[in-house]
Amino acid sequence: MSTVTCSNERYDITCDWLAGQQSQMVESLKTLVNIDSNSYDKAGTDAVADVIVGWLEADGIAVTRTPRPDAGDILEAWLEGDGSDASAGHVLMMGHRDTVFPTGTVAERGYTQQGEIGYGPGVADMKSGLVLNIFVLRALKRLAPLPFPVRALFTADEEIGSRDGTAFIREAASGARAVLNAEPGRISGNVVTGRKGGAAFLIEVTGKAAHSGVSHADGASAIEALARKIVKLHALTDYESGVTTNVGLIEGGVSRNTVAPAATAQLDTRFATNEQRANLLAAIETIIAEEEVPGTQATIRQTSGFLPMEPAMSEALFARYRVQAEKLGFSVGGEFTGGCSDAGTTASLGIPTLCGTGPVGAKMHTDDEYCRLETFVPRAQAVAATILDLAAEASPK
What we know:
four-stranded antiparallel beta sheet, about 400 residues, alpha+beta, disordered N terminus
């Protein structure tokens, strides 16, 4: 990717400053990657927060930190607007500090670099995106205030369903005119314009124990009831529409020769639209309520979930981003992915949302995860330029 000078004074200042930050971006990425921050490691995700707060405050950027008892603290940074266009809301940038990698991974394989490729736990998903958002804020700080505020949210539990973070995302997005979520750009160089939603469930079935040889008829097998439900649940999968169901874990029983008094299963579901989600959840509830085996009973509880990012909610914002990318010298398309993200939350609120605006990366959640470092500057410029384009539209004529 090449970098070019933007088209007016604000663009010039922003893009030119970002163009000189490549080495600092990479050094910042190295710092964050070399901090273990598994979703369940509060100390680790808070250590990442400590570093981010230090960087932002050193550049005079306001940041608030909301302590959380059981998850990583929530950070929100912001740049005030000049008040000339308060009616249509702020721009929100988002990113999560947590990774899927267990504490201790950094000691085994911390940040490494080969040419323009950076490796390490969370290097693409999504510590590079955090760095990008930080540098966009720093670039915009060097300008006179925009017509509207710019906010950035840094959560800490996205990889486990944003169970704590979702409420803060909803609050931070309330009234926004646009949301830019810095998940990694696709290996094609594209951004994400649509995502499936997903929900995870715990199913618990109770029955009645009995000796399988002496008094089989006196028992009520929870395993049999669960098995019958699994067949029905899997039959809800419809590849053509994008709906999938998968029972990936099951447990149950006491011994081989005991009619099982209890069984559990974990169910994963995916869907492309909110309408599909509502229909699917209703069908699942019906299946769970059915008595498959006399004397058994089943319950279901949702353990995590993401709403879908429907492509209609990204269309206009993506068109604006693509124009800015072309001005900067690179072409970009939009992609739909089956993976979930916090972008679904904001899109489902009716807020224009674009995802995958971070640097390009691939092989996320594996030991081979990598980030293409040469994409840092142009993609940061594209995010900043998109925000400036929104500001130009909002400025008094």
